[in-house]
Design a protein that fits this description.
There is one protein chain. With 148 residues, the chain is an all-alpha fold. It is built from 4 helices and no strands. The protein has helices spanning 2-33, 37-70, 78-108, 119-146. The protein is elongated and about 55 Å long. The two termini are 17 Å apart.
Length: 148
Amino acid sequence: MKQWLENLAVITATFWIGGLWVVGIVAYELFKLIPEAQLAGNIAGQLFQMMAYVGMAASIFLLIQRVYQFGTNALKQGFFWLILLILVLILISHLGINPLLQKFKLEAMPKDVMESVFADRFATWHGISSIAYLLECFLGVFAILKIR
């Protein structure tokens, strides 16, 4: 049973971290392919939201699997702490920064947020969110390297 769970953990981590990278690349390309930035942003936002849910589920599974497999020794492993850190970044972004960005968009209506008085604040928080996402991606690579 433990071998099966370990294999599932490797598959889960690979799917999740690979998805983070793919969504980041797709979001970047969307802004080049779709001339209307607001539409590209809405599509990218949906992709990032989907990855946040995947990330929450995958990270919780990986943390539980690690504790099940190694007991309290899981707390001594870099992999455990990398996954926990990524989960914290996801929760901060999804529950803290993204609602703030949505608030700026709604308050700017009917204008595009980047054409409103909220443009500077939106750009700042969007930049912080982007850095957090990129950090998740790079930490994910290290987690994949430490999974076994």
